[in-house]
Amino acid sequence: MLIGRTGVGKSSFINTTFGVNAAPISHYESCTKVVKHYSKSSQWGNFCLLDTPGLCEDNDVLDDKYLGLIKNDKSIPHNVSVVYVTVLNDTRFRREEKMALKKIYDYFPSYFSNMWLIFTFAASVDSARRIEVVTRRRNDIESYIKSCDRGFKGFTEVAMVDNVVSNWSTSSITPDEFFCG
Fold first, then answer.
1. CATH number at residue 29
2. How confident is the model at residue 84 (pLDDT cuts 50, 70, 90)?
């Protein structure tokens, strides 16, 4: 299940992963208003990605509505793997990010026991600074979560992706750098 702020590329990540435009996207407004299931068969087996509405769009009421949709969706397994999606090219750990993380934690504290972190828009960060930026952003996010949950041990996996630039990773990053966790 992908979760995070609005506009960070959750739906685009699904489209990139599946290689088709399955999830609607827009450069100007949020498209995902309900939890959507996208399934795919692959050589490694079947898998499903859950797209969720973005948080911090307009107000807390909308966030509570969207998180309530996730909480009340009986089709989401209790042992779902959760992927927190955020942009790598943010220059600061912003209030909206803290608000989103706090809301997610308030609704779903158990999600943080086995959570992945995906940084989108990684190609927009200079390749010479990419690992430094990932390390800084990861530390900021993990430190904030630890302030909410002293038992949080860190993200299970951390990865960089780019939803816009095709084949960016083949020339600008090594496989060991792609997964940073």
1. 3.40.50.300
2. very high
- Domain extent, residue 129, equals 2-178
Structural domains in the chain (count):
1
Q: Tell me the two tokens of residue 46.
A: 């079947």
Nearest Cα to Cα of residue 86 among 72, 97, 77, 78? 97
Residue range 87-118, pLDDT digits in tens? 999 988 999 999 999 999 999 988 888 899 99
Nearest to 176 by CA among 134, 120, 115: 134
DSSP string covering the chain: -EEEBTTSSHHHHHHHHHTS--S---SSS----S-EEEEEEETTEEEEEEE-PPBSSS-HHHHHHHHHHHHH-TTS-TT--EEEEEETT-SS--HHHHHHHHHHHHH-GGGGGSEEEEEE-GGGS-TTTHHHHHHHHHHHHHHHHHHH-TT----S-EEE--SSSTTHHHHH--HHHHB--
